[in-house]
Amino acid sequence: QVQLVESGGGLVQAGDSLRLTCAVSTRSFSGYTAGWFRQAPGKEREFIATIGWSGARNYAESVKGRFTISRDGVKGMVYLQMNSLKPDDTAVYYCAAAGRFRYSSGSTTVGDYPYWGQGTQVTVSS
Predict the structure, then answer these.
(1) Residue 26: what pLDDT?
(2) C-alpha to C-alpha distance for 93 and 35, rounded to whole angstroms
(3) Which end of the chain has fewer CB atoms at under 10 Å, N or C?
């Protein structure tokens, strides 16, 4: 069973930076695809960033150039560095993982991820 725990959320001002961390508990994290999604009140969960088992990355247009996803396969960690935060970035952020060697370039689809964390709140004030 794969378990994910996010941390690093908080209240910041517009223009600030935050780094979210996702700890993945599995015997070997290598080969897994990981993704970050977010959900604002009254909205559907939306794709933010993904990193495939090959290391390829993909981003939503709304965060491209501001957010960076990375991973440490040895430690079983996934990171989301968020810079130049905007009030529209306010949401609960979720880390997700897909089965080993499923998506070499990552996946932008919620349904492709069977494993999810509990979420961490990010609030950006203007």
Answers:
(1) 80
(2) 10
(3) N
